[in-house]
Amino acid sequence: SGGDQPIVVICTTESNIDHISDALHAGSDEYVVKPFNRDAVVARFQDIRDSKISD
After folding, report:
1. Which domain range does residue 21 map to?
2. How far is Cα 14 from Cα 32, in angstroms, rounded to an integer?
3. Rounded CA separation 53/14 (Å)
4. Which end of the chain has fewer CB atoms at under 10 Å, N or C?
5. How many structural domains is the chain composed of?
6. 35: cis peptide before it, omega within 30°?
7. Strand runs (DSSP E) across 3-43, as ranges?
């Protein structure tokens, strides 16, 4: 089921748009640039999880 699929996240200090684009095109679900807001990241993870479950 969709809930069994891993969430792929890149977490880095690299904010270069080419790196972000490459990571997302390679299949990452999310690209988080440090420092980050914990609540915003948790909300994004929940959205990703919910979309994978509904697939």
Report:
1. 2-54
2. 9
3. 30
4. N
5. 1
6. yes
7. 9-12, 30-33
Residues 6+ apart with CB under 8 A from 11: 32, 34, 36
Residue type, 39: D
42: its two tokens:
């948790």
Q: How far apart are CA 21 and CA 32, in angstroms?
A: 12
pTM: 0.77
- Report the C-alpha gap between 33 and 37 in whole angstroms: 10
CB neighbours of 8 closer than 8 A, spacing ≥ 6?
Answer: 27, 28, 29, 30
